[in-house]
Amino acid sequence: MERITTLKGTGRSRLEVKESEIQYLAYLEKHRVLTLQQLHTVATELFGVILDSYSFKNRMRKFEQFKLIRSKQYADGFNGERFKYVSIGIRAVDLLIENKLLDADFNQQNIYKYIRKENLLHYLVTQQAIINILLANQRESYMYNQDIFSFSNSDYPYHDLIRKKSMVFGRNSGAQHAAISSFKNGTSQKSKSNYRTYTIIKPDWVIKLDLEEDDLPSIINIEADMGTEPLATLEEKFWKYCILAKNRSHERHLLLFVFPDKSFSNRSSFVLQKKRVKNFLNILNLQTNKKIMEEAKISVATVPLSGSAERSLLFFHGNEVKG
């Protein structure tokens, strides 16, 4: 029998919240913003809530009345993406703290930033890839949240040291050459007094799978590509991940470039940019890039959003993933 928490509303109104509902509210807080369709998938397929789409929408209206969630509508022109998206509300913060799913010193002002997320489509495509991967893993392992972990780049930062007078990873025309040089030269012992901390790369999201003690942790670094960046920028990211994988040989790394397609939502207008994917694959298959990839022992894959789970499972099973 699920534990029930009763919330008081105005007048005599009451809302009973089940333990499984508190769990998916915790997921929503961790992942900041989701479409209503994504949250329904999380609730029903990750946390076992039994509600059809219509009933779930009604339930969310009640949640919003009791300030457990906040919502907005997104519309990109007449033929573009259209959906409702949600983040947690102020009373959900109290509920999560009471259930020890959130630290007591959590800054409640953060929740007002969530719903105003910049690059919203990019962020939500990333979230769909995460959901795809977590669901696929759960279908095989039946143990969500026991050995697989989901992190934002602020929760799982990739830091290193760099000489104070030189920021070789600054955005300039020589950044890739510096990355290549740094990779080929390797790392050396560094005096902390002469170096400062910098961030190697910020993935859109990180998924980590901890296996048996004798196995290396498996890390999936997700990069969602919306087609707005030059391919040279994607190649620069590739170089930085090669350096990351070389410096973190205690982990297995997969760099997963995700390209949106119609699987994003039931009404999605996304069309997979096949030519862009092909051109980027040609860059990755250059002999120099293939050699560095092999030396770094990093797996790299370019996939449509609908194929994100399949490649991830291959990687989690210890297979090398390419292309």
TrEMBL record:
Organism: Lentibacillus cibarius
Protein name: Replication-relaxation
InterPro entries: Replic_Relax (IPR025855)
Pfam families reported in the protein's UniProt record: Replic_Relax
